[in-house]
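Quick illustration, no need to memorize.
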Amino acid sequence: MKKPPNSCSYYYNYKGFHSIILIAVADAGYKFLYVDVGAEGVASVGGTWSNCSLHDAVEDHTAGVPQPELLPNDDKPVPYHFVGDDAFALRTWMMKPFSHRSQVQRERIYSYRLSRAHRVLENAFGVLSHRFHCFLATMQ
């Protein structure tokens, strides 16, 4: 994004450019279910998540997350989870990868499979950008 006037370094992120933090939730069909936009780029993603309305609703069990369901050929109900990256705090409803430091084989497999689930959100943004080309250029 282009630096807003009189914003000092609020939107200047750790990667060295200006940005706005966007937190989104999408389902397996690339449908956006929740979007929170507007936190300054200097803010942490974890802190922004802790201050957004969805986080509070999930913590209070008022977010409307479906009840656990049976998977095909199984008799144990499996709860729904959110998939996040390292920036998010670990919760019973939040799945995130293991630290990259000293992963054993099963942790690497778990982290890889979780990254495949995380790609659904990245693909949803790809579909959005393909439909609305303004997301491919610098925001004014």
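The helical segments are 45-50, 53-59, 105-131.
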